[in-house]
Amino acid sequence: MSKVIHSKHFKHIILALLFLGWCLGNLDRFVINYAVVSISEDLGLSASSQGIILSSFFLGYAIMQIPGGALADRFGYRKVILFSLFSWSVFTMITGSAWSLVSLVLVRFLFGIGEGGFFPSGSKAIAVNYPVNQRSSAMSVMLASGAIMGVVTPIISGFALESIGWRTLFHIFGIIGLVITVLMFFFLKEPARIPAPSNISSPAPKKNASLKTVLKSPIIWGLFLSYFSIYAVNWGLSSWMPTYMVNVRGLNLKEMGMLSAIPGLIGIITMLLGGYLMDRIPAGKDRKISAVFGLIVAVALYLMSTAESIALFITYETIVRIAAGFVSTLIISKSVKSMPETVAATASGFVNTGAQLAGFLTPMLIGFLVDASGGSYNTAFIMLIGFAVICSISLLFNRRTQPALPAEPQTT
């Protein structure tokens, strides 16, 4: 067995780079939710077609979660992150040149494949560089990039889409991604490892032991279902709220962008706070507290659907974002705390596959429900409420029953 050596501030540099990279990833994936309004006008697309476009990314992204994690566990997180950044930046640029529904669906699917390796590799980097009792806090910092981009993206999109258009916007974001890829190439490193003394033998790793270890864990399957359910809510709202606020609530793009930023702004603080608290809540109580937050999500979604004013609507959406952010942080940080470092990326990738399958299915289902109901979003809200309840139940009964996990390598 080898042991990891790194400088005192090494882990903070790694986390800062992961945060930067995931800010870009969330920006690139979120902007389509706002651009799709303009894209649909230019290409004459229906609500069902919009749903297919929004879902195509998540199919590719979900497919790549487990392979991306396995590659990071085998070859190291740096190589996978660099490839992921470069490829998704290229496909972001190509999105701006799409000319039809088919071309958009194909490009967004390939974009998802490219980005799919980043999250499990980033989780691997956190597991390698941070002790168990600091991983929720570190993971919440990386996840906070999504909340930050939830604030930044609608503001940028609202103004940019009316001034430079969606094609130029995607071209610019792609170029920014290539610049960040170069930055990562020079500054993103893996800690050096020194071999164990020759007189100490260690068993040879079993082939495919990584994935088998993950699939035998009951808690991982429970987290998979919980993550699928809470992200059905997250991606359902993220993908359709811009269109809903314009078409149903009667807002223009700038008004929609400014108001959409409010829940995200508050979500940044609550997500970071959630990670801090998760490292300090006794084992067992975290799932009960998160189950309660899951029910809060369900109630707030119902109140959103019946809100008579835009002010009340945004207030209830903010409550949803706060509670859902807390639940999301618990689930994904628990995946890297419950499994040994050697399978951290695979475990994180498997659990995150649930979230991305939800991202694939939910926008498309909402599109079909809206078309089938003549433009009404009532059935869509009912579906999201159901997913929030499922998440709560799954967390409540998700007990750790697997045998003791192997010890992790020591770090210095």
UniProtKB/TrEMBL annotation:
<keyword id="KW-0813">Transport</keyword>
<dbReference type="InterPro" id="IPR011701">
    <property type="entry name" value="MFS"/>
</dbReference>
<feature type="transmembrane region" description="Helical">
    <location>
        <begin position="257"/>
        <end position="277"/>
    </location>
</feature>
<feature type="transmembrane region" description="Helical">
    <location>
        <begin position="166"/>
        <end position="188"/>
    </location>
</feature>
<feature type="transmembrane region" description="Helical">
    <location>
        <begin position="344"/>
        <end position="370"/>
    </location>
</feature>
<keyword id="KW-1003">Cell membrane</keyword>
<keyword id="KW-0472">Membrane</keyword>
<dbReference type="Pfam" id="PF07690">
    <property type="entry name" value="MFS_1"/>
</dbReference>
<feature type="transmembrane region" description="Helical">
    <location>
        <begin position="140"/>
        <end position="160"/>
    </location>
</feature>
<dbReference type="GO" id="GO:0022857">
    <property type="term" value="F:transmembrane transporter activity"/>
</dbReference>
<dbReference type="InterPro" id="IPR050382">
    <property type="entry name" value="MFS_Na/Anion_cotransporter"/>
</dbReference>
<feature type="transmembrane region" description="Helical">
    <location>
        <begin position="45"/>
        <end position="64"/>
    </location>
</feature>
<dbReference type="GO" id="GO:0005886">
    <property type="term" value="C:plasma membrane"/>
</dbReference>
<protein>
    <submittedName>
        <fullName>Sugar phosphate permease</fullName>
    </submittedName>
</protein>
<feature type="transmembrane region" description="Helical">
    <location>
        <begin position="376"/>
        <end position="397"/>
    </location>
</feature>
<dbReference type="InterPro" id="IPR036259">
    <property type="entry name" value="MFS_trans_sf"/>
</dbReference>
<dbReference type="InterPro" id="IPR000849">
    <property type="entry name" value="Sugar_P_transporter"/>
</dbReference>
<feature type="domain" description="Major facilitator superfamily (MFS) profile">
    <location>
        <begin position="14"/>
        <end position="403"/>
    </location>
</feature>
<feature type="transmembrane region" description="Helical">
    <location>
        <begin position="76"/>
        <end position="94"/>
    </location>
</feature>
<feature type="transmembrane region" description="Helical">
    <location>
        <begin position="219"/>
        <end position="237"/>
    </location>
</feature>
<dbReference type="InterPro" id="IPR020846">
    <property type="entry name" value="MFS_dom"/>
</dbReference>
<keyword id="KW-1133">Transmembrane helix</keyword>
<feature type="transmembrane region" description="Helical">
    <location>
        <begin position="289"/>
        <end position="307"/>
    </location>
</feature>
<feature type="transmembrane region" description="Helical">
    <location>
        <begin position="313"/>
        <end position="332"/>
    </location>
</feature>
<keyword id="KW-0812">Transmembrane</keyword>
<feature type="transmembrane region" description="Helical">
    <location>
        <begin position="100"/>
        <end position="119"/>
    </location>
</feature>
